[in-house]
Amino acid sequence: MVKPKPEVEAVTWDKLPKPIVFHDGRLVQKATPLLALLTILWIPVGFILACLRIAAGTLLPMQLVYYAFWALGVRVTIKGTPPPPTQKSTGQTGVLFICSHRTLLDCIFLSTALGRPIAAVTYSVSHLSEILSPIKTVRLTRDRASDASMIKKLLEEGDLVICPEGTTCREPFLLRFSSLFAELTNQIVLVAMANRMSMFHGTTARGWKGVDPFYFFMNPSPAYEVTFLDKWPQELTCTAGKSSHEVANYIQRLIAASLSYKCTSFTRKDNYMALAGNDGTVVGKPKVNP
């Protein structure tokens, strides 16, 4: 048990022998008696506000979501120049947006910043999140050949967004990027995502991920910053002779530099093993042969 007023001061973040990369829990700030009381009093109001914000994002046309969020206290900041929509009439394949991963809402806020819905591939999200999502979501199977075929097909239909980290990280670090995306297209746009929460974290490894969006939107004034970086140059893609791992690592470093984050070699599995004692895989229902 930690005393209310311990005799020894807690070690500050910059003096720890190793940096904290993974942590879980819903509360952003230390639960002092006053803060705990304010949090309990806020929860009913915050839940109603979260429902309104989610309803606005789900039901309104994507062109209006940006303004609805601002009216409801959700701050969305857009930096850089978003690319124009892909013209299917010219036979051009869709652009692949590569995003850093902060919450389950990254892809939705990307669509909000663009003013149009962008399909997203996901690793494992709850059915509730899929139902509430205003954009098309497609689950990865973790079979490399199958996933590659599916992503190529989605790019033929239009723009697509992927978070190569595979899971969220709350600290100023980026997890290792999966390199599969680099093998599938040379039309790549980098997007650096950052957010701010004052009361509740909108991510979890040990809890029910289906309520993550509610916790994020229950914050009094949550904020998202979407930064569009330059389109990835053709000479640094796999078609120019670069390996997929070189491309993925370089993109990771570039996004990290734009956010002043540090790169790590930790994977999605490392995150879940450290926090939840499993690899984070959601077991699907077994198929029944007719």
| Strand order in the largest sheet | 1-8-7-2-5-3-4
Considering DSSP H and I runs of 4 or more, what fraction of the residues is helical? 25-40%
Shape call: globular
Taking the sheet with the most strands, its summary is: 7 strands, mixed
User: SS-based structural class?
Assistant: alpha/beta
Write a concise synopsis of the structure shown.
With 290 residues, the protein is α/β, with parallel strands linked by helices.
Structural notes for this entry:
- It is a single chain.
- The protein has 290 residues and is of the alpha/beta class.
- Helices cover 33% and strands 14% of the residues.
- The model is unreliable at 284-290 (pLDDT under 50).
- It has a seven-stranded mixed β-sheet with strand order 1-8-7-2-5-3-4, with helices on both faces.
- It has helices spanning 33-59, 62-71, 106-114, 127-132, 144-157, 212-217, 244-259, 268-275, and strands at residues 75-79, 96-99, 119-122, 137-139, 160-162, 173-174, 188-196, 223-231, 262-263.
Task: Note the topology.
Elements: H1 33-59, H2 62-71, E1 75-79, E2 96-99, H3 106-114, E3 119-122, H4 127-132, E4 137-139, H5 144-157, E5 160-162, E6 173-174, E7 188-196, H6 212-217, E8 223-231, H7 244-259, E9 262-263, H8 268-275
Parallel strand pairs: 1-8, 2-5, 2-7, 3-4, 3-5, 6-9
Antiparallel strand pairs: 7-8
Helix pairs in contact: 2-3
Tags for this entry?
single chain; 290 residues; alpha/beta; seven-stranded mixed β-sheet; two-stranded parallel ribbon; 8 helices; globular; disordered C terminus
